[in-house]
């Protein structure tokens, strides 16, 4: 029996700083590090699942390099750090900065900047006489047209930053290239590729023909201690989403040798001396060509593949390089087995409707690893709408044929169904030029079909660690029905959040000095803004959001510009008219001397132009002649002291369209609600008067029929209503949640009445009620709004609404 040699450099004697936990699928990295024994220090934005594996945690936003460097240096003054490493592409540059600042082993920052930017890397290869296709940066359509004249098709257009194939597209002619350029410009999103936070530069290069490979390497002191070539296969062009990864490579030994030699030459010229490197290249008829250099361990299947085939632990070896522990050369290795990984892709964007994994079949197929990142009900977006897949499965085998048989067996044990989005239901389909021009709209509607999206940046357990302020209004028992409702919603939300485990603080904007004091003194992570008044004035509702902006405190719901605009129904009407949104014909009066357009046809409805909650609307608001019109305008202007909005009366049913979300990739239309005024007495007009909304409920029970969802309504009508509502919601720049009110006439022509950007969301109100129909109970609904706000602040810069141009 051979005695096991003791490790002369045990990792347990060292302290390793890991930059960023990454997503939950990186959990295995920390499990392996923990097993190997070094003290693990993690610098991370917040406390999440990684706290179970970290010996120390440095809380810092890794997107803010200055803040992170300061906190790491403060920690290093009192604690030992022997090495620094990251397994996350987004943090390669930050890791280089930390290594230089602490004088640790790593890649120099100026080198990392070249490798991190694909365009700069192409320029580097050209300057150093390394193989490189013809390439050029582009920023306008004119640039594209010039490239089309100077370059040979096919061409590939791609972002300079990114760690995956997101937005990397092949074009075969000038028109395709222009279409793809427009598509990338319109769809650039951190949600699709977080690495794009470094920049949104785009370049074009001539297509490189040949077999694509990965070269995974361990470099120490400028020497390759380990190198392995793996085969990569991509999906059908024009996109470059990987489908299959096979190790060892089936390429001839001579080709593999040329690839590793080329990779070593590139890294030597770059000045990369140490690290675990994931090198992407192609082998062409002219020899190997570098594609990009990733200065960290490859993702997904790379670790398990190297472990099984070569018995090389890339996590441990990467840690040893970072810590300066000598690694013997492990270059010429004999494969212990063969592995193949297959990505679980969807053919079309849609929703996961079924998912089943047969463990017995997987066992027979020698499955080494399976990862599924989607659940039933989740949306999945594939090119051109997005760059997602369900997960992957890795199998082993005794040889190339055996491993292929096993991957086929494994795929039979993983069954899933994607409900494809039906493009025929989309308004305006005939006006779309190509497959790319519809990407945004299709993406919206696919996501709208998903019941609950998984949050990308924060788990539900971490979300509940937030300190939530509830901005609202309180009233005593002597106030009216409206005041009672306004007070109730804040209390209900706070109670709900407390039950879910949140720390909450009540902020009453009717007591403004006290509210200001709370905002100044308490560390509140996010405010759930349901404040409808300040100093008991509904006209000051937008100012609550403005105050939160001024205090740099994130909040749910719409910004002050949208809230202020929607209070002024006259301005909303003008904006809807400008954008061609159907709305009843209208006019307005600020004084009794204003003339009302003679083109309006009776009956008409007269409303206060800047009040909410149906205040000032009664059955008398609908008028049938000039005398009644004059009387009602006088009531609004003289008695209520508000401008008057006059609209042509629409007789038919009323639809409430509740919408969640803010951005193209998270908009969700909830089931519609329909009010039928079928039981009203003859003398009652088909409207929602104040008593219907804030009475004792008898009016609704006695006279109205409410359907949630609507019954026996043509699907074309509901689609049209939905599209018009979405357009209204987007035109008015609504955030997180809102409700659009639409009425249809006798011919089912829809007309927008108004948008409520922060509608009442008390338990039992319209919006949370329809949310229940897609599986969101009240607590889940409130948490969904919080999650949407978190995503919005993550994806957009602060105060971006200050630059919003609504027209």
Describe the fold and architecture.
- This protein is an alpha+beta fold and 807 residues long.
- Among the domains are: 94 residues, Rossmann fold (3-Layer(aba) Sandwich), CATH 3.40.50; 127 residues, ATP-grasp fold, B domain (D-amino Acid Aminotransferase, Chain A, domain 1, 2-Layer Sandwich); 113 residues, ATP-grasp fold, B domain (D-amino Acid Aminotransferase, Chain A, domain 1, 2-Layer Sandwich).
- It is built from 25 helices and 32 strands.
- It has an 8-stranded antiparallel sheet with strand order 13-12-9-10-11-14-18-16. Strands 27, 28, 29, 30, 31 and 32 form a 6-stranded antiparallel sheet that branches. A 4-stranded parallel sheet has the order 3-2-1-4, with helices on both faces.
- Helix 1 links the parallel strand 1 and strand 2.
- Helix 3 runs antiparallel to helix 4 and helix 6 packs antiparallel against helix 7.
Average of per-residue pLDDT values:
85
Number of helices: 25
Estimate the strand proportion: 15-25%
Termini, distance in Å?
Answer: 81 Å
Structure class:
alpha+beta
The main pleated sheet reads as: 8 strands, antiparallel
**Strands side by side in the biggest sheet:** 13-12-9-10-11-14-18-16
Give the overall silhouette: elongated
What would CATH call the homologous superfamily of one domain?
ATP-grasp fold, B domain
At CATH level 2, the architecture of one domain is 2-Layer Sandwich
Q: What is the number of strand segments?
A: 32
Helix content: 25-40%
Low-confidence residue ranges: 190-196, 423-433, 444-457
What does the oligomeric state look like here? single chain
The CATH topology of one domain corresponds to: D-amino Acid Aminotransferase, Chain A, domain 1
- Please identify the top-level CATH class of one domain: Alpha Beta
Our Rg estimate from Cα atoms comes to 31 Å
């Amino acid at each position: 029996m051979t005695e096991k040699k003791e490790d002369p450099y045990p990792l347990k004697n060292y302290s390793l700083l890991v930059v960023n936990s990454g997503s939950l699928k990186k959990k295995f990295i920390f499990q392996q590090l923990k097993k190997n024994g070094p003290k693990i220090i993690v610098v991370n934005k917040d406390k999440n699942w990684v706290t179970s594996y970290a010996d120390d945690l440095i809380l810092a936003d890794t997107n803010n390099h200055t803040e992170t460097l300061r906190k790491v240096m403060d920690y290093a003054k009192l604690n030992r750090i022997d090495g620094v490493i990251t397994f996350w592409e987004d943090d390669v540059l930050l890791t280089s900065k930390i290594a230089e600042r602490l004088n640790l082993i790593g890649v120099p920052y100026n080198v990392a900047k070249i490798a991190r930017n694909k365009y700069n890397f192409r320029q580097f290869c050209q300057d150093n006489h390394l193989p490189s296709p013809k390439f050029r940066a582009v920023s306008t359509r004119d640039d594209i047209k010039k490239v089309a004249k100077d370059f040979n098709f096919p061409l590939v257009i791609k972002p300079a930053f990114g760690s995956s194939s997101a937005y990397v597209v092949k074009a075969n002619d000038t028109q395709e290239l222009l279409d793809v350029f427009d598509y990338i410009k319109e769809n650039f999103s951190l949600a699709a590729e977080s690495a794009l936070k470094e920049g949104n530069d785009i370049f074009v290069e001539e297509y490189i023909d040949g077999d694509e490979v990965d070269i995974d390497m361990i470099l120490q002191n400028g020497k390759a201690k380990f190198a392995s070539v793996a085969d990569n296969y991509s999906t059908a062009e024009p996109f470059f989403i990987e489908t299959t990864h096979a190790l060892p490579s089936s390429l001839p030994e001579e080709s593999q040798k040329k690839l590793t030699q080329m990779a070593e030459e590139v890294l030597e010229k770059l000045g990369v001396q140490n690290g675990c490197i994931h090198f992407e290249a192609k082998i062409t008829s002219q020899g190997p060509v570098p594609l990009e250099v990733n200065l960290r361990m490859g993702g997904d299947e790379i670790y398990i593949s190297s472990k099984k085939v070569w018995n090389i632990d890339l996590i441990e070896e990467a840690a040893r390089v970072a810590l300066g522990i000598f690694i013997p050369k492990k270059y010429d290795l004999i494969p212990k087995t063969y592995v193949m990984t297959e990505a679980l892709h969807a053919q079309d964007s849609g929703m996961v409707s079924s998912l089943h994994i047969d463990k017995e079949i997987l066992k027979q197929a020698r499955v080494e690893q399976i990862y599924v990142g989607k659940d039933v009900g989740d949306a999945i977006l594939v090119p051109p709408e997005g760059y997602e897949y369900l997960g992957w499965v890795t199998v082993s085998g005794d040889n190339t044929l055996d491993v292929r048989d096993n991957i086929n067996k494994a795929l039979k044990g993983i069954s899933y169904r994607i409900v494809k989005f039906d493009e025929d239901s989309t308004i305006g389909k005939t006006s779309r030029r190509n497959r790319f021009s519809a990407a945004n709209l299709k993406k919206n509607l696919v996501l709208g079909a998903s019941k609950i999206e998984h949050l990308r940046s924060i788990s539900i357990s971490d979300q509940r660690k937030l300190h939530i302020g509830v901005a609202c209004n309180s009233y005593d028992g002597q106030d009216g029905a409206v005041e009672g409702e306004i007070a109730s919603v804040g209390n209900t939300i706070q109670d709900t959040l407390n039950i879910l485990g949140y720390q909450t603080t009540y902020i009453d904007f009717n007591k403004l000095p006290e509210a200001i004091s709370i905002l100044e003194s308490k560390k509140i992570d996010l405010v759930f803004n349901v404040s409808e008044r300040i100093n008991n004035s509904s006209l000051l509702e937008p100012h609550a959001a403005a105050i939160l902006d001024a205090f740099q405190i994130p909040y749910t719901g719409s910004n002050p510009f949208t809230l202020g605009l929607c209070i002024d129904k006259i301005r909303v009407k003008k904006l809807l008219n400008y954008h061609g949104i159907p709305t009843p014909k209208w006019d307005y009066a600020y004084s009794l001397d204003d003339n009302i357009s003679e083109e309006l046809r009776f009956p008409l409805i007269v409303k206060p132009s800047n009040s909410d909650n149906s205040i000032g609307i009664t059955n008398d608001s609908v008028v049938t002649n000039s005398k009644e019109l004059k009387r009602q305008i006088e009531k609004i202007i003289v008695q209520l002291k508000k401008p008057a909005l006059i609209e042509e009366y629409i007789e038919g049913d009323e639809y409430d369209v509740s919408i969640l979300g803010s951005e193209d990739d998270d908009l969700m239309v909830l089931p519609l609600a329909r009010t039928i005024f079928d039981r009203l007495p003859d003398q009652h007009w088909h409207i929602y008067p104040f008593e219907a909304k804030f009475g004792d409920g008898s009016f609704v029970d006695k006279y109205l029929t409410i359907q949630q969802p609507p019954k026996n309504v043509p699907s074309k009508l509901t689609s049209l209503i939905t599209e018009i509502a979405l357009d209204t919601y987007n035109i008015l720049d609504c955030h997180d949640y809102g409700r659009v009110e639409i009425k249809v006439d006798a011919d089912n022509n829809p007309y927008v009445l108004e948008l409520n950007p922060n509608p009442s969301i008390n338990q039992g109100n319209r919006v949370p009620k329809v949310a229940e129909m897609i599986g969101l109970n009240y607590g889940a609904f409130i948490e969904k709004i919080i999650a949407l706000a978190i995503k919005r602040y993550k994806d957009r810069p602060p105060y971006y609404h200050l630059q919003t141009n609504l027209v």
